[in-house]
Amino acid sequence: MTEAGSTEGGAPTGRAARELLARADSLLEAARGVLADHARAVAAVRTALDPLLDVLVRSGLASIPVSRLKDVTEGRLRLGAVEQAGFTTVGQVYGASRHELRQIPGVGAQTADQALAAAGQIAHAVRDTVAVRIDVDAPDDATSALVGAVYRLVEAGPDVRRAVDGARRLAERLEPLLTAAGPARDRLRMLFTGRRARAGAREAVAGVRAAVADAVERELPLLFGQVSADLLREPDSPVAAWVDFELRPAEYYSLLAEMSGTGPDRDAAEGFLPSGIAGRVRGLRLDDTRLRVSLRGYQSFGARFALAQKRVILGDEMGLGKTVQAIAALAHLAAGGETHFLVVCPASVLINWTREIRARSTLRALPVHGPQRREAFAEWREDGGVALTTFDTLHTLPDAEDSGVRPGMLVVDEAHYVKNPATRRSQAVSGWSRRTERVLFLTGTPMENRVEEFRNLVRRLQPELAPAISTRHGAAGSQAFRRAVAPAYLRRNQQDVLTELPALVQVDEWEEFSEDDLRAYREAVATGHFMRMRRAAYACPESSAKLNRLRELVAEAAGNGAKVVVFSYFREVLETVREALGDGVFGPLSGSVAAARRQELIDGFTAVPGHAVLLSQIQAGGIGLNMQAASVVILCEPQIKPTTEHQAVARAHRMGQIRTVQVHRLLAADSVDQRMLDILARKERLFDAYARRSDVAETTPDAVDVSEGALARRIVEEEQQRLRTGTDERTLPVDG
């Protein structure tokens, strides 16, 4: 063996071994550093969270009569003396000391200890049910400390979990190996070590080399450094943490639910599946290495359900993240070696799917739509990725058999579009479904109300299950229905998982102009008419992409019995929406409607049992009116002033609202909508979020908004330049 180092039995020796072990030491130190930094960040959250939970627990105990202590001890506890001393609630006993209770005549050490133990058990049970809600309009020192502590974990992003898991596994692997490889660190020590110990050291060095190589291949050294730096990064100020919370509340609430140990009832979060199926799903470990987002518990379960059951319908209520659950399932399969996936959806959500896949995973998204669809399909067939196509495009492409591709998973969004097996779109989907082992149908429509429709969908997935499904299952109620069809169906409602949801879910609904939309838009751009550009997406109602998506959102809300408020700046747009939705729509509210009449319309809208739709100009509905009966808000177009949107959404998202509010903002890609958002996001949004937390902004909201005239001029000029230079791929003439 030379000092320069060589290999013996496949393991480096001499200097090479020492250099390898030194490198492994550094890697182990980095892994331990990540674990320590994460532990400190988690401890900081718990330190800030525990006092808030204690307040909630004590509040809950204050309403529980002291007699309930007997239930915990199965009647063995005698409370007469305690009650006579003025202790009427469990909270009073919980807050007392052992010494204080023993001062009560007739209460001995055993009774005091039993009473405190019983109160502690009830307190523990109450703690499992409470959840901290953060009020951005009433921040105090305690909630500011909590938001600031959670900020570190949120800012570090989804890489934290991967880094911590990787660090823990690497430390468990390296620590014993480095101990066993100890003799190889010193040439003389290795020389005077016994033969068996030398062989063990060489074997350990070989193991260290394999562990280091594996860590480097997985880019763990870079990941550890990045995550440690992120976990040590504090917000610039308390205000900065509050701003971040307002911009992405879902991440904060998800972490809080995880930290506090609270969350939805497990049976409800798992869709009331039978224990056998639920256990099998829980036993599947989800590989999230290709994901760029942290899943909530119920979302992880949904993805694993799709993987474990292979051919299923995911029917979660709108707003619970069916898309991200599907992406998680695709990412898991991709991490395991699958290369081709197919998503079929309505044209109205194709852009959203493309954006979501690219933002939330490392998967390659390839739209197969429009004039170049055959070329895109051929590229997907050759190179793989996630092909995204529409129902109407699918039947124009080579079918599953002719393509020679067997996707790792077929995802069908808005699956009720293929409920009729006789239609061309249904037949095209069925062709691919028969050739694909894993198929995931997505629909937010509650299937227990549409048993025949459900039976038709199940025939494509698990035909052996369809004959056993009858209308009596739907009549028996939602939970009974879900248990009966559990092998093929998972649905969770908002109230099932509410503790893991923020109070407000905001979704940008990106649409692609139809040809008529584009023609109207180009005409408005050519004339330099900013307001006409903003409403061009509704100029041709028969083919309007935005209006089509609005109908779908309203229909899904109707299926869930949810009330909807539709806001637009333009009275003309609201009239178009009213005609498209038909009878039974309230409004529109506008500036010309007297205040008393406005309130009558809102009262009538509120009084309707179940689903209803209210239309309102955003200026008229955004101030002074309460619309908390609505849990779905649709914004027909983005607003020039962010405060206008904030005020309008606040009409529904306010005290008294008992459901999570979903805000859907309808946006047209490559249009005035996108330009407005780019400018506002780049120059104004963050400042506005800060300013809205100041006294000046509370009294003069216009002070933090951009100049309407300047914004309009800039956007008109940019769009005229873009269309003149041909950067828009579509080339319809301005005059038709």
From TrEMBL:
Give yes or no: UniProt keyword ATP-binding: yes
Q: From the UniProt record, which GO molecular function terms apply? A: helicase activity
* Alphabetical UniProt keywords: ATP-binding, Helicase, Hydrolase, Nucleotide-binding
Q: Quick check: keyword Nucleotide-binding in the entry?
A: yes
Cross-referenced InterPro entries, in alphabetical order? Helicase_ATP-bd, Helicase_C-like, P-loop_NTPase, SNF2-like_sf, SNF2/RAD54-like_C, SNF2_N
* Top-level taxon: Bacteria
Per UniProt, residues of the Helicase C-terminal domain are 549-702
Question: Residue limits of the Helicase ATP-binding domain?
Answer: 303-464
Q: List the Pfam families hit by this protein, alphabetically.
A: Helicase_C, SNF2-rel_dom
PROSITE patterns, alphabetized:
HELICASE_ATP_BIND_1, HELICASE_CTER
Family matches, as SMART domains: DEXDc (SM00487), HELICc (SM00490)
Fetch the SUPFAM superfamilies from UniProt: P-loop containing nucleoside triphosphate hydrolases (SSF52540)
Signal peptide positions are none
Q: What is this protein called?
A: DEAD/DEAH box helicase
Name its species: Streptomyces castrisilvae
